[in-house]
Design brief:
The protein is an alpha/beta fold. The protein has a 6-stranded parallel sheet with strand order 3-2-1-4-5-6, with helices on both faces. It is globular.
Length: about 300
């Protein structure tokens, strides 16, 4: 029986996990007992519409014992105008309380980090847990890549499922669109027009990446928070891990040594996920500009990490 433990739950993440019949048990932990009870009841009242799953809520970490997967969403939320990286110091202090408790009760678990800044905090969770790197995963640019594919589909007037494109690097302003590999049904866009995504691009395809970067702030400005997209993203990652699907996703993982990165950082690259966490990293063929951007991204995050105390 799989036990899935969620900290400071995002209700839409949980709703997707329940609706998609991904886990047999969901345990919610929150320091606010009223919010915790409200979220738990709300989920329990909808269980008649899904496959039988057990949903519990508790303020004690002992309720999470034996979890196969722990999804961590706790932290100071990103507000209008806030950068993700500005949240790092406060959220790191929260992680110093959470991660050791999770490890105590579930020493064999996999940690899936969703809290922003996700790359820095995935690194922090790795350091605080003492786990091998494959068992600590950041949700990373999985949602960014989905946004990218959606915007490609809107421009091309097709469904997102036949548009393929990766956003790698940081989940944030310095994320990197891999235009050299963006494709429609197997046809690379740059085989049609080599200028796509470059400064010489008269059709301004690079605007799509700018929209990806600004998506979260736009949604926060309009409704106060993001929910559905990240819920669907986390549900997909959870299914891949619990069902050992060996599917590929852009998630944040330890990239030291990948693409000749020397820094000890977590960044998003395409990874194969299964019941051991990250089972393989896919080494994409990147052009010189994309490689340079990835190395600059690693250096930037490394400088942020050096200012924090783990």
């Amino acid at each position: 029986m799989e036990l899935l433990q969620v900290i400071e739950s995002i209700s839409h993440n949980l709703g997707e996990l329940a609706h998609k019949n991904i886990a047999s048990e969901l345990v919610l932990v929150d320091r606010n007992p009223d919010k915790l009870r409200g979220e738990t009841l709300d989920l329990q009242h909808g269980l008649a519409f899904v496959r039988n799953a057990q949903v519990y809520g508790d303020t004690q970490y002992s309720a999470t014992a034996g979890s196969k997967l722990c999804i961590v969403t706790a932290g100071v939320p990103q507000g209008p105008g806030d950068s993700r990286t500005s949240l790092a110091p406060k959220n790191l202090e929260i992680f110093k309380e959470i991660i050791p408790r999770l490890v105590k009760y579930s020493p064999e678990t996999i940690l899936l980090i969703v809290t922003n800044p996700v790359d820095t905090l995935a690194y922090a969770a790795w350091k605080l847990s003492g786990f091998p790197a494959n068992r600590v995963i950041g949700s990373g640019t999985n949602l960014d890549s989905s946004r990218f594919r959606f915007l490609l589909s809107q421009r091309l007037k097709v469904v997102p499922s036949i548009c393929h494109g990766w956003i790698i690097g940081e989940h944030g302003d310095s994320s990197i669109p891999i235009w050299s590999d963006a494709s429609l049904a197997g046809v690379r866009l740059r085989d049609v027009d080599s200028r796509v995504g470059t400064k010489k691009d008269v059709e301004n395809w690079s605007q799509l990446h700018q929209e990806v970067v600004g998506s979260a702030q736009e949604i926060i400005k309009l409704k106060g928070y993001t929910s559905w997209g990240i819920g669907l993203s986390v549900a997909a990652l959870t299914r891949a891990i619990l069902e050992n699907s060996q599917s590929s996703y852009a998630v944040s993982t330890l990239v030291q040594g990948i693409h000749d990165i020397s820094e000890d950082v977590f960044l998003s690259v395409p990874c194969i996920l299964g019941d051991t966490g990250v089972s393989r990293i896919i080494l994409q063929t990147l052009n010189s500009a994309e490689l340079a951007d990835l190395h600059n991204c690693a250096k930037s995050l490394y400088e942020i990490q050096k200012s924090l105390h783990f």
